[in-house]
Give the backbone structure.
Amino acid sequence: MTDAQKTAADSPLRTTGGAPPDDGGSSDTGAPIPLLEPREGIPPVIADADALAEVVAAFAAGTGPVAVDAERASGYRYGQRAYLVQLRREGAGSALIDPAACPDLSALGEALSGTEWVLHAATQDLPCLREIGMVPTRLFDTELAGRLAGFPRVGLGAMVEGVLGFVLEKGHSAVDWSTRPLPDPWLRYAALDVELLVDLRDALEKELDRQGKLEWARQEFDAIASAPPPEPRKDPWRRTSGMHKVRRRRQLAVVRELWQTRDRIAQRRDVSPGKVLPDTAIVEAALGLPATVQALAALNGFGHRTGRRQLEQWQAAVDRARTLPEAQLPQPGQQVAGPPPPRAWADKDPAAAARLAAARAGVSALAERLTMPQENLIAPDTVRRLCWEPPRTADPESVAAVLAAHGARPWQVEQVTPLLVDALTATGAENGA
């Protein structure tokens, strides 16, 4: 570990500074300055092919990194698609694009190919950007950079305030972005989200370099940019809130039938599934196993506001589960690859439990010295898998190979391999292999 890494907590970026070129950074008193308007005002919303072509040309001719953000309508609409895309680049200014009117942004994505994209919490926006043809080949994630640099609060507003000395207005983060036309205050908020993103990126790059972590960050960013699209989740109905109360297979079948019925309705109506039927109602029906519409209507979530026709469709789903043959009922537990939950280790394999305790202590101590969250230093699942099935010989080469096989980046392997070797050897992993 370098001297810079040892003193990472003494970051000069805990103060304000680094303002936009034509502004003052922070006030004479050191208080952060509210950022109320984009530099060039609120840009017009791009909603037709001709205007989009102009934006593509302008951003292709721009210089330097491009700030990118997307707004979704989570909690209002079905799925996680983008309803507004915001961009800013030197020489091009800012742009707001309506993906509902311009659903194919692949030309813009191609124009920016090879350019570094600056996003905040990139993994949240990349799926919806991919759907409209925008896929970066290089990126800089300002939230992840903040985590690696040891900032205690890494939301965009907190980072802009703590690093650049400006206050972003965040009052519209949870609005229904599928609304048309979008109100000016919402558009102003959206444009401001990319206004300082490149400035923030530049300041964080300097701080990561000062701490000796810039190459680590680059490896993390490359891993995000090169990651394949996630595969569809198996049995998504099992993630229904309150599932821990549902124990019997027949009850599980009710959850599955109601969840799938709700999902089809939500998709057809293009609304959030929770607005069709809340998870609490699904669990209530599973536990109660109502035999009639009247019994269903008496349950929480199926109150007097639910129409007769709706009640009948929910009761039909319950009836399908009630009459399902035993062989077709879902199993109570989802088959998960890998080790069991750590709480069961002490009974199943006390030696593995001892290895995990030692490994966790070592990771925690190192993460504290490096001033970063433990999960960014090494994925907890990787540590669990190593400790549950350690290599036959717990030497640095073998441990490093296991970590790399589970997706650890080279910098992570370099940092944690020594302490994990110590944890395995101190608890006799080799003898237990």
